Amino acid sequence: MFQVTTLIGDAEKVEKELIKSPPPSEADIEAAKALVKEKGEAVAQLKSAKAGKAEITASVAELNKAKENLSRLEERSKLKPGIPQKDGKIHYSQDIFARQAFLTVSGQLQVETYACAVSSVYTFGPTF
């Protein structure tokens, strides 16, 4: 039997992404958290000073951008190369089948390999 999984393709994508742009360092994440805190304090100060609506709206927009950037950084820092594992075994709940799955060896599967070698191939029997 052949094991079927979609995790290998996903793992390759993650590895290529990590090579192209490495995950953020802990210092990058801390700097982004500090920026979010700073922007939040700025919004609070504007509200307490009863600033104009335009100023508060602009400050809130900056705060939202900082929060989005922080969430992207945190998400990227969680990316790990390789197939997802749990307790040292492949974590199939993230796979398309949500469990370990196999293909059986059938006559039809074997005929596919023969079809590459010779031009005319015939098979009979139950096929699904």
List the helices and strands and how they pair.
Blueprint: E1 2-4, H1 7-20, H2 26-48, H3 53-77, E2 85-86, E3 89-90, E4 101-103, H4 107-117
Antiparallel strand pairs: 1-4, 2-3
Helix pairs in contact: 2-3
How would you describe what is shown here?
Helices cover 57% and strands 8% of the residues. It has 4 helices and 4 strands, in the order E-H-H-H-E-E-E-H. It has a two-stranded antiparallel sheet with strand order 1-4. A two-stranded antiparallel ribbon has the order 2-3. The longest helix is centred in the middle third of the chain and has 25 residues, at 53-77. It is elongated and about 85 Å long.
Radius of gyration: 26 Å
Overall 3D shape = elongated
Contiguous runs where pLDDT drops below 50 for at least 5 residues? none
Q: State the major sheet.
A: 2 strands, antiparallel
As a percent range, the share of helical residues equals 55-70%
The count of helical stretches stands at 4
Q: Approximately what portion of the residues adopt beta-strand conformation?
A: 5-15%
Mean pLDDT: 77
Lateral arrangement of strands in the main beta sheet: 1-4
Total number of β-strand segments?
4
Structural class: mainly alpha
Task: Write a compact overview of the structure shown.
The chain is mainly α and 128 residues long. 57% of the residues lie in helices and 8% in strands.
Could you name the key traits of this structure?
128 residues, mainly alpha, two-stranded antiparallel sheet, 4 strands
